[in-house]
# Entry
Amino acid sequence: MTYLENKEPPKREDRLKTCITYGGTICGLSKKSKSCCINDSERGFSQGSICLLLPALGMINSLPDNVVLLHGAIGCGGCSHSQNANARSGGNLRWGKVKDALWLSTALNEADVISGGEIKLEKAIIEADRNYRPATITVVAACVPGIIGDDVDGVIERIQPQVSARIIPVHCEGFKTKIWATAYDAVYHGIGRSLLEKPENNKNLNISEFEKLEEKYKLSRTVNLLNVSSMGRVDEVELSRLLGALGLETNIFPVFSKPEEMYKVTHAALSISTCPTHDDYLVKFLEEKFQIPYILRHMPIGIENTNKWIRDIAAFFGLEQQAEKLIKEETRELEAALSEFKAFFKGKRVFVSAGEFRALATAYLLAELGFEIVGVRSFHHDEFAETEYEKLEKAVKNDFTINIANVQPFEEVNLLKKLKPDVFLGHWNGNGTASKLGIATHVIYNTGLSYIGYKGVYELARRLYRQLKNPLFNKKLSKNARLPYTEQWYKSEPFKYIKNQGGEADE
Amino acid sequence: MSSFIERPRYLCALGGAMAAVTALPDTIPILHAAAGCAGNITWTQNGGSGLQVGGYCGGLSVPSSNIQEREVVFGGDVRLREQIAGTLEVIEGKLFVVLTSCVTEIIGDDVKSVVSEFQDEGIDIISAETGGFKGNSYHGYDLVLQTLFKNYLERGIDKVKGRVNVWGIAPYQDAFWRGNLEEVRHVLEKLGLEVNTFFTSHDTLEKIKQAASAELNIVISDIYGVEAANVFEEVHGTPYLVTPLPIGPSASDSFLRSIAEALSLDDSVVEGIIEQENKHYYNYIEPLTECYNDLDLQRYAVVIGDANYAAALTKFLSDDLGWLPELVVFTDQLREEQKPVLTQRTQGLESGLQPKVAFETNGSEVLRHLNEIRPTYSSGKYSDVFGPAFVVGSSLDRELAQTIGAAHLSISFPVANRAVLDRGYAGYRGGLRLTEDLLSAIILAR
# Structure
């Protein structure tokens, strides 16, 4: 893999044949296997969604001592107003200090569209460097420079000698890919190309032989735990706890990583992902360039998935026995704590919607808690999830609906009207439709809440219990709020607007 | 001038336009844009609009053509036509507004001709060119009003005496948009006027369509919606009056008098209402007197806000609450010719105070401006510092408040740390709300 030698990473449609359209059932999907949907899958009617700029900023806004410089129109990056809450609380939880994320915009206007934005970008980089004295400036290119043809990388190369901050380009031209998970590649690409060298002044000259051996041993027991902002601090703590129980140290990367410590990711014994959707680009790079092996399977959401995640890591270090002991003790304690909730959840019908791995792993967790899965919506589909679908198919007796969509609440509302679940779990800004239908809802991702590991199972159960115990906010809302869909649409087939090879009907 | 904008306190033209369209009754935006525009706008509202996202068909429910590289190369007209047709089948609405974006403006799609095909079929559908690079949220709001006035309002209808339209507050960009509009409506109705405010639950498309029957348009902003008022006057011949956002009794008194004058209303009626409203206001203020004094609740203040709030809050703090606003910072991107009127609004205060005025899009520069007035920390035994102080601004100004040891309240965008529903600061009642909120922030730990 030599992607990092290029200026920009490839889009995932090309690299992984990722797609965003499918409507059918789990059984139907497994028959189709990898050809379930095709690369240029389309909808004839679509609703707005996000682009790679949002998850990319979700990561970058967390970086300390960094200035985010958006090169685009004034609105691009406004999402930082929401992500700032995570930057503030995340910093506070890690370092006891509340600080706003720092993002700037070159605010390209009509004149710039005509004459180009390169000079403006150059000036902005220099001024940002002088004003804020950051360690790094991440230049995030949005749609406009992509269309008018600004050479963002050229500007950065030209200007770097005049600037003390390290400048990192991150390409986020939203119109270029419909797979927003390309964001993770874009950020990893920028960091991987520019920030992984050990700072020169970070050398200990008086280190003894014993200390050297100690350090070597420590590194042989240190693992990279990758977090692209899909986990909050509470989840990092849970996974560090479990790894610590096996005698392993964790190096969490890249969110909230200090620039001078980023190099540590190249010194670990193993890279561990919690989600292949996020990390395949980086772990493969770290293996190729630094010979660090990786584990890129199971998301530690749910009991069995967490067990598997731990076993994989333990096997790598030859710690199988310790792992079994840990798993036995943890699951015994957890099962006992869950018993009262399980009785309550039994047979309740649930629908989940999220990024592919998260949706599937959470569905698995919910099945473990005794829920009946009636539908899963994933934001995209690629090869990594094949095993997850298989796992879920085995664990769940009934057939259920699968919809692959970059949100598209109109398909969701159609399904929910027909399936009538008791509870719905959706992503940020993705629970409104179910709420207005009067269904109990819970957010499937929020960096302030616990989802991961054994602790996450219990905390999620506790929260779902609470939501199901009193869903009157949504019930009352549903009697008084309208959803913007025609009667005709509710009667239609939910996947009507998926063109070409997406749906089961096309088989 | 800075070569960038720090933590921009507004979205792009499309962001303001989408928010405005979703706030109109039964109206559906159709974005002709890349997939991420709607999401970015939604996340921004989520973070800055006082916990309000969306509307009837807002957030990620907004129809969007989600154009890609292929359309950039071959044009997006075909995709837009397909998207509009699909929207009419799936989405229930009475008016559809196509909004263009950076990408579709640059590639030069002929949106108007696609839209006109649907108009020919009798669909209520209009469009606005809201490419993000054309300006910020406030401009996008103005552009939506312009297309509404030009392309939706019925033309050539008779003016009706006592009927007025009010605008000048950008939905979601002002977290208090609904409360403010409702309160302005409330005081105008006291004058016996029939009021259309476009964006509240009291407004309907039927009435909006008849908006040209108004005898006066009232723009409660020196900047936002003024271009639209010109368009309205050109197309429908209705004059307009620009007034600052009236916050509290002093500003509301002037507001009512200026409206009465423009509409030649009976003086005694207006003065009667003013007296009644002040009586009501001070009836609530009265029991506050002891604690206001005992707790020494007068403050020096820094006011940081958009063109509407910065001046209007300064006036209220100075002339109703009796505080000392010494620095006023306008955080909008403004043209030079727009600045004098805003500066003038902060001068001529009844208190005689002459606050320093700064036009500054980078929030971290506010401390520098403040230090130019007087020290923000004690430097010796006798030091006339800026304190006790209050920062009235956005949630991004909390760091400043912390630095100078001031209390803080978020009012201007972003309002990340407050839940806002029907609360508004306009009018007489708004003055009471604002007094409650400011003083509550001071006594938080009491």
